[in-house]
Amino acid sequence: MENSIISLVWPDISFLEKISEDKKLALEIAQSENILIESGRSRICKNLVLLNNKYDQLTMVKILVPFIYESEKDEIADLIHGLTAKKQDLKIEWYYVEESKEVEGLKKKFSSDQSRIFFIKIKDPVQSKKKDLDYVRYFMTRAFLGKNDSGEFDTEYLRKVINWLSGENYYMEYEKNVKAFKNYDTPVLEGFSKPMLDLKKRIHQLSRTDLNVLIKGETGSGKDGAAFFIHDLSNRNKKNFGAVNCALFEENYLISELFGHKKGSFTGALSDKKGIFESLSGGTLFLDQIHEMPERCQMMVLRFLEKGEFSPIGTKITRLGNVRIIAAGSKALIKEKLRPELFFRISEVKIEIPPLKDITEDIITFVDHYIYKKSNDPKKRYEVKKFFEDNMDLFKNYEWPGNIRELLAFVKRRFEIGQGEEKFILDDIGSNSDADMFLNDFETDFSVLVKKHKNKLPSKMELESFYAKSVTEVLSSKTRKHIAENVLKITQNTYRSLLEKD
Hints:
Strand content: 5-15%
Structural class: alpha/beta
CATH superfamily of the largest domain: P-loop containing nucleotide triphosphate hydrolases
Radius of gyration: 28 Å
C-alpha cells in the first residue's frame, strides 16, 4: 500500500463487522502501516487537514467513517476539494455505512469529479457470525487506550479486531488476559471527552511504572476497569490480576483472603489456604473499598508494602511476595479511616475517574458498549441507541448519582423489556432531576414560610431573601445553574443583588 493512507474515524463494532466482511478492505487495514485514526467532533476534518499538510506523495486515500453530521458536510467538502486540487493524481475512496442526506449531499458536491472521488457503501455482513465479543472488546479497548501517553491509537490492536472479525483466532495468545478482562469490562475507558482522553494518558503513564496507585471516583464510575488496564498495559501483564472488595469480609476472613491461613487457626479454617499475596506474586492486586479494611489487616498490608513479606494466619513462617497494589475507596473516608503511613504507601500516585455528569458527551459511546455486547440484532441495537440519542438533552441534564452503572441499568431495561419501557425510564430520569427536586423543595419551604406568617403573605424583603436563598441552592451545581437560568429566568447579576439583600 505504498503512497496510500487509510483514514479511519474510530468506529463501533457494527462498523468493524461490516469492514471485516469486505475481505480486500479488511486485508488492507490489517497490513497497512499508514493508518490515521481520529476521534472527537472534528475527527474527519482533522484527518483531512493532516493529509493535506503532511503527505505530499499520496496517490490514494481511503476514508472510513460510520456517519457524518450536517454541520460537518460543507467543511469536509472544502477540505477534499483542497486535497484534490493540490495533489493532481490523488484518488479518494469514501466508505460509508448507510445512505443519508449528508452522504447524498457530499455525492452531489463531487458529481463532476467522479473519476477521482468514489463513494462506496460497505455491504452488510452476508450472515451474522457469532463472535466471542469478549475478545473483540478486549482488543478494541486496548486500541482505545493507545500505544503511548500521547494518546495515539494502538493500531496493532485495531488490526487484531479486524482480523478476529474476519476469522483469525487469538484464543491461545490472549486467553488469560481476556478471561480477566471479562470480569472488569467497563465502557468508561472508551470515552472521547477531554477528561477521558486525559485519563487514558494517565493510565499509560502509570502502567510503565511499578508504583502503587490510588484510584478515586464516585460509586459506579468504573474504577475496577481502570485498575485492570493499568495492570494489562504494564510489564506485569503476563502474571495474574486479582481484586478484593474489603467491605465484603469480616476481619479474619479478609486477612485469610489476602495472606492465607493454617488449618485450625480460627473458627471456620478447615484446611490450609494460600493467600492472594502469595498466589498473585509478580502480578497486581486491586483493593476496592480499602477504607473498610480493619486496622489489624492494615498493619499486615503495611508490613508487606514496606518489606515485601507476610505470614499466614496461625504460622510464624515469613514468606516473600512481589505484588503491585492498586487501591480505591471513598474520597471522604479514605484519609480518615486509613493509618497515615498506609495511606501514603498506597497513594504513591493518584488518578480520578470523572463522574458521568461531567462526561455526558460520551453517553452514546457507553450505550454502544452495552448493546453490541448483548445483541447481534442490528435492528434492536439501532432502536435502543436511537432512544438514547433522541433524549440526550434530558440525559445530559441528569446528575447520574450511580454513574456508568446507573446508565447501563437504564440501557439494560430498554434492551430487555423493549420500547414499552421508554416512558418509565424517562419518568425515572425526570422524577429524579434537579429541576423537580428543586421545585418540590421550593414549594415545601415556601409553605413553611407562609404558615410562619399565619397564612399571610410575607413582606417583600422576606420574599426576596427566601428567593435568594433558594437560588443559592439552585446554583450549587452545573445542572442547577441551568435551572436558575431556564426555570427561574434570572441572571447572575440578579442573583448577586438578591444575595446582597439577604
